[in-house]
Amino acid sequence: ETVASAGPAGIPGFPALGHSGASPPKAADPLMGLAAAVAERAVATAQELGPSGLCACLTVLGPLHLAGGLRSETHSMEVARLEHTFARVRAAVGQGCQDADSLAPPQSIVAPMAVAAASQASSAERLCCASAAVMRAALTWGKRLSPAEAAQAAFFCALALDAPGFTAAEREEARSGLSRLLERLCWQKQQWSAEDRRLLSLVHAMLRAEFPELLRDPAW
Fold first, then answer.
1. Residue numbers in the chain where pLDDT is lower than 70
2. Domain housing 209
3. Which of 70, 92, 65, 59 has the alpha carbon at shortest distance from 198?
4. Which of 6, 61, 66, 203 has the fewest CB atoms inside 10 Å of its own CB, making it the most exposed?
5. Which parts of the sequence are annotated with region: Disordered (predicted)?
């Protein structure tokens, strides 16, 4: 059962966020290969991206593959969503890349898409692996994360708690990281922006439904 109903700000047409118990993204998702490549680039340039770039990337990757991916009504709408999402991902990763222009959309973004199921399955596996590495890199910044960065990382970790594509060890990393982030964020409540509150309200809704033990602090 999906708990939260708001999609990520600035990306129209995304499905609702929250834990749905759904399977990993379906092989038909045409953005999977691009997202995997972007996540891998983020891992490779983690030092240059820093916490701001890494956490911004997580807010794009999380809803994309942990919360069900894109929905397809018409080809034109799908292409528009892909282009919008690509711009968001490219902006997040390109901040720290000298050769950001090399992240130009592949032809599959602007033309009819037909990718073999086996290739897409491989892309989904790559995406999960690289996204977990981006999460790990962001969490290493620990107390140096700003409230906004911590909220973004917490949002991804909450989505990752029961992500089917993640290993048990990766889900435990998400759980441990989320617990630390929430503890810090409670002490920084006066510094939350409107966007921080929006993300953390989604986190609260997801945890209240499925992981209430992570909401130990009365501040939540």
1. 1-31, 65-121, 216-220
2. 32-214
3. 59
4. 6
5. 1-22
